[in-house]
């Protein structure tokens, strides 16, 4: 009898907690806002909130709040070795920096954005984050490859893995900074990743 009562009490406690948390799940913003409040040292919580705000406001009409959150996420993992870091966080921050650079460009009569010193600075920052993300991405793929080889997987059966969008953003940053050769290398690597599948 006692175990049944204890089980019912535990179930009721979890039920109440679940009911209290339901409003957190309305959308990504509320979910990650509450996650940041509950775990302010969580890289994933800050990155999730940054992404939610960036998706909602890609033109920075509500200020740089997405950028600030992404910078917090990157700072939390900044000292980790590449094998234990998160390429997606650096890629997100690079994406936000590049979008900030785009937002500062004014179109000419033909609709082409002429370069400006301020936008170029943002593209440099984007490139720095994309390169950091790519270093993490490649280090983790090498770690995975070594583990597969240790398991006895033949080398020819170990495909590439990584984040194709990261290399697409890297290529775009190189293009904006006037380096088409490195841009081409990034785009070709992105294509290899995309075609290798999961």
Task: Reconstruct the topology from this structure.
Blueprint (H helix, E strand, L loop, with lengths): L1 H20 L6 H11 L4 H14 L8 H13 L9 H17 L13 H34 L13 H13 L3 H17 L2
Helix pairs in contact: 2-3, 3-4, 4-5, 5-6, 5-7, 6-7, 7-8
What does this 3D model show about the protein?
This protein is mainly alpha-helical and 198 residues long. The chain has two domains: 22-77, no CATH class; 93-198, no CATH class. It has eight helices and no strands. The protein has helices spanning 2-21, 28-38, 43-56, 65-77, 87-103, 117-150, 164-176, 180-196. Helix 4 packs antiparallel against helix 5 (87-103), helix 6 runs antiparallel to helix 7 (164-176) and helix 7 packs antiparallel against helix 8. The longest helix has 34 residues, at 117-150. The protein is globular and about 50 Å long. The model has no long low-confidence stretch (mean pLDDT 86).
Short overview:
With 198 residues, this protein is an all-alpha fold. The protein has eight helices and no strands.
